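Hi U.,

Before I forget, here's the chain from the pilot set. I'm dumping it here mostly so it's searchable later in email.
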Amino acid sequence: MCGINGFVSVSPSVDDDSALVERMNQAIIHRGGDFAAVHAIADGALGHCRLSIQDLSSAAHQPFVKDDYVLVFNGEIYNFKALADTLDGVTWKSGSDTEVLLEMWRRYGPSCLSQLRGMFAFALYQQSTQELYLCRDFFGIKPLYYHHSAGQLWFSSELKAISQVVESLSINSGVIAESLLLCWIRDSQCVFNDIQKLQPGQLLTWRAGQVELKTYWQPASLLQSQPIHRSINTSVDTLDNVLQQSVKAHMVADVPVSAFLSGGLDSSLLVAMARQHAAQLSCYTIRFSDADQRFEKMADDHYYAQK
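Structure:
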């Protein structure tokens, strides 16, 4: 899962920035207990809690520092090996998707985001320009929150880390009421008035204390001027091909891959496809020992998962 944290400011801090970010790391250490570290930068610090998936060696530890860049990254870039093959002349320090992401940014800048296939939230700091970039994946699978005030920017994978270091946060009662009504919180809002969440497909640039937000991706359906007409058979074949490619890409890992079986159509289909690309696949489900027998089929995922 991993977790990222950080702080940047235009003015010198009276506190030890690294110590503050270390507190943030400890607040979300449950996101990745394999390795945790903080790296000081010119105007702040970046932190990372790692759950190792790609390249389990220390060479892939984060914060990942290479030449002019410092990167903290939560997620997976599924096509990182194919992207690495396109990057000629690179001296690789690791075999990680983290380094591939850094090198793609170095070569292409923000335009590289359209080439990434995966789920991610990352912070990349360029030391020569003292610019920080925060980015969230197309669909917002990986979370990223930030607090910007008086030339300072705090960010984290979880709200609790920011609340550890930012004082006088107030509760947004309207958002809480809305979440109880709708079961979700819309837009960039969250339960604190002074903290926002980066939106899916959004890039934040912090430069000299100022923040600029840009949407770098939108669903193709919103950009398509004319409807696409396909036959049922063509649509089924297209969907099957897309799902097969996606499942195969998700199976790339240096650790065992497991699946959660709820007994429903989605998880059953994905596990059936995953078995075509894995010699071994562990599956887990939930069973309630005290479930009322009259409602066993509804209350117990195990009933359907074992079918």
